[in-house]
Protein 1
Amino acid sequence: MSRTVSAAIVEEAGADGFTVKDVELDDPKAGEVRIDIEYAGACHTDWHLVEGAVHDNFPVVAGHEGAGRVVEVGPGVTDFEPGDRVLTLWVPACGKCELCVQGHQHLCSEGSEALYAGTLLDETCRVHDGETDLAQLFSLGTFAEEIVVPESEVYAIPDELPTDVASIIGCGVVTGYGSAAHRADIDPNDSVVVVGAGNVGLNAIQGANHAGAGTVIASDPVEMKREKALQFGADHVVNPEETDLEAAVSDIDPLGADTIVLSVGVASGDLIADLIPVLAPRGELIFTAGSDAERIPISPSQLLNDEREIKGCLYGGASPRQTTGEVIDRYLDGDYLLDELITQEYRLDEIDEAYENLLGGEDVHSVLKL
């Protein structure tokens, strides 16, 4: 039996914004869970969807960060039951392939096919607008009152974790923290530079400190974000529009940065190339930004001569479930900042305003109350 729910839709690539409308949601099939979404995180990636990036199939229900309660489970689901409090993880996984078994569920090939098609794992849709099937962003579509998703994208949360806080963990928090704490090889007293102090960058700062970094430097042109970076544990901040980053880092550590985490929304090839000279010998650049660049204009000798590395980093570079558990435990122990990331709360019908403020630098990360 289907039911009517309100959802924020991106009708086509390059749309003016989101369209909030009533749609029809199917029952969960085998291995799927229906969730009553209470809060959804307004992540920058959803605006890339509006711009026509990230996804090819339109129309699509937007949103990929969320939290709420399970209301129904499909056949074969044993890890969840109605009433469970949960958050969403944005990569579906088969749980059976070699990468899944190794703990790299974020690299599951079967899951990635569904992820970018916007279907569930059986390659079909659960949301409909009349006769039109609607894709779900990253097989989720959390900008809706209810969703049906694969159980692999669901994570049970403890009662002590507030729902609005839980709703923002499943993407930017895990990505930023994991990029520094797991994908990077940060040794005690290393110098770490985080380029981009938005949601992902602020969590990368915290991840670097938990990994034992000696000095953390944050670079961002927005004053509010530089102030946030200091609050989240950066030792120094740089405005790259006024100060040369390489010179600023050299003044702090003459050898350069041992690790750079690149966490801007969209990185050009030139920006990536400009960061290579900022690295110390044997330094690493962790690339966790989006990019539509076709090439990076660097000389191979820049990597060879000083043994520098560029590492791709998807979803924090580790098991999303492991990283999510680490962050929640640290937060509940009073050793991780999450409440401070949420700068505003909006209704679903205020979603365009939420993104106007996010893009304008007024919000670091807001939530939608469903």
Protein 2
Amino acid sequence: MRRIALPFLRQREMLLWHKPEACEFADIAYLTGFRGTTAWAAATPRGVWLFVDARYHERARNEAHEGVRVVEVPAGAKPLEAVAHFARAKRARSALVDPSIPALVFRSLRRKLRASGITTRLARKPLLREARSRKRPEEIAALERAQALTQAAIEAALASLAPGKTTERELALELEWQGRRRGAERAAFPPIVAFGPNSALPHATARDARVAQRGALLIDAGFVLDGYCGDCTRTFWIGGKPEQMFLAAYNTVFRAYEAARRAATFARSAEARAIDAAARQVIDASIFRGAFLHSTGHGVGLEIHESPFLSRWSDEVLGGGEVVTIEPGIYLSGKFGVRLEDMVVAGEGRVLGSEVPREVMCR
């Protein structure tokens, strides 16, 4: 079984994770390899156990990492009861539970374990945050494949664009199709396809409005491949020579992107807030001061948004090996928005996939 640094505090302690039905929570997938909709996982100094209900017995056996022991909960039985029985059988003295667990489930678990003399505590922070933040070489390779697929899907979808005819929604559907036909399991998030004033909304929703013959087109997409996410944003100019204001915004965002990427290239460590500040200072020193409406980036892995978060409020420190997005933007209400985004290996500063182009991309 691959080694994962687990925060054991003492012998006869158990760590527990629970993934509620259809919840976006990837710690159990990271720990065990199982990517079903719901499960429990337990870890002790002696190993890792995965608890699944009858729907997932065969799938869990097929997906679990080598060395992970699968506990097949019988049909009609409650997985929580199986976990409590397991804790008693292992003679655990205490259980430390990942804070992602729903409050009602935690209370039920604590009540059952207390009856057996087992102390149950809620961890102050996610138990696998540090382990998941720094990516192993095989994870970085998987992320690079997902990003390459995402970028290829964006290019293919753009090739189908007929300005004046194609709507934002049609282009978004084409983008999803291009990702799926290239092998993506799913979109990591609903793709953002926004033209003109709609692109000034950082998280715009694709509309039935047509992409006109002239203006800014922002596309933000990500696809999941082998469990890992891609995430890429490009802003294009449709129809001839770009307007001067758009050129100025694009060039400013590109310089902010470069500044943040330099800040994410380091020998020992870097503060997440310092990477955000590097991008923000470029934009705030320009005529677009105050038009950068979100944080500079976030970690990417089994989830599209995960630690570390590159924001002005973050107290996280990057040590190298994290994969983060660099995605500064400028948003001018009623006019247009510009965002440029790549995935970067922190420390190295290496971009996964193709890099943001310095020059405006015209279509």
